[in-house]
Design goal:
heterodimer; A: Jelly Rolls; 2 helices; 5% helix; globular; disordered N terminus; B: alpha+beta; 1 helix; 3 strands
């Protein structure tokens, strides 16, 4: 995979948020009851890396940020488990989880914008503290550009969630829903490097992701005028998102 | 004007006018785990006629209800 350099140059002056001439005016507010943003048709989306920004104060039992996988048993996602110590943020494949054991609720549910990213590792995976999985597969988790995955719930488990996803939703996983704001959701068909994630985090200011060749990039209202019920995909896959059950646009954005 | 939430029985879904609530359609609404109840939300000052006489909840109130075992699977995510 080529190491991509950021391309934050642009011609549009930022009206709010966004670094280096990159305009970011909108995010999407999800109410935690039944709101979600969904790809309406089977996307066949390779989820090797996923990046997004979130803001919440909710310490609900379980807050999914993004769910993907295949129907049935191969179902995974990025999820918060605020009520369980050591699972503030995790990747969960429906059976076991890889979690950020060193984070507390106050690190992520503080009403400030944070960036989260997960990166699939196909072989030689160890947590940031050196714990391996039996098949060498796993997910790196990054919060605000820093790698935080320290816990593997069961090292003998084969973390082999299919990365080719037949669905993709933001704010929903099974019966759980996210309560807060989400912005700049991106999926990449390759495993980004740690340096890539640092660049994308950009010290807390979202930038232009086009040089990373996202296969899905939901600007959450930008490019759609902050209205309507469609999030037009700015990635290469043409996977537009549909606002389901009443999410609203917000001008509160990471900056 | 604040958003209001109303719990209804599953057999009342056919009476919901989805042009007057925030839910997209009957296919996207969320049911309780046993399938007996669901809810809808609306932003208007006027209560839709098919919801008149039913208890209206605020956002924080409905979230508290949805955190109960009637609405979320206590066995997921796995420990």
């Amino acid at each position: 995979m080529p190491i991509c350099l950021p391309s934050f140059a642009g011609t549009t002056a930022p009206s709010s948020g966004g670094g280096g001439g990159f305009a970011n005016q909108y995010s999407v507010s999800l109410d935690g009851t039944n709101d979600s943003i969904d790809v309406s048709s089977n996307p066949s989306l390779d989820v090797y890396s996923c990046s997004l920004w979130f803001k919440t104060t909710e310490t609900y039992f379980s807050l999914p940020i993004a769910g993907f996988g295949k129907s049935g048993s191969q179902y995974g996602g990025i999820r918060f488990i605020p009520v369980v110590a050591g699972r503030a943020v995790e990747f969960n494949d429906g059976f076991q989880y890889i979690a950020a054991g060193g984070l507390s609720n106050s690190d992520v549910f503080d009403g400030a914008w944070h960036h989260v990213a997960i990166v699939y590792v196909d072989s030689g995976y160890t947590t940031s503290t050196g714990t391996a999985t039996n098949n060498g597969k796993g997910y790196k988790i990054f919060i605000d550009g820093t790698r935080v995955d320290t816990v593997v719930s069961l090292t003998s488990h084969a973390y082999s969630l299919a990365t080719t996803s037949s669905f993709f939703s933001v704010g929903k996983e099974r019966t759980d829903f996210f309560d807060g704001l989400i912005d700049e959701v991106a999926v990449f068909g390759s495993s980004l490097t740690d340096a890539n994630i640092t660049t994308i985090y950009n010290s807390g200011v979202p930038g232009d992701l086009s040089s990373f060749s996202p296969t899905l990039w939901w600007r959450m209202g930008d490019n759609d005028g902050g209205s309507g019920t469609t999030i037009t995909d700015q990635g290469s896959g043409g996977n537009d998102g549909t606002l389901t059950n009443g999410p609203t646009f917000s001008t509160d954005v990471p900056s | 004007m604040s958003r209001k939430y109303v719990i209804i029985n599953a057999d009342e879904v056919s009476s919901v006018d989805f042009n007057k609530v925030e839910e997209t359609s009957a296919d996207t609404i969320r049911y309780s785990l046993d399938g007996s109840q669901t809810f809808v939300k609306f932003d208007t000052d006027t209560t839709p006629s098919f919801l008149e006489g039913k208890t209206q909840y605020t956002h924080s109130e409905i979230l508290a209800i949805l955190e109960t075992d009637e609405w979320i699977d206590p066995n997921f995510p796995p420990e």
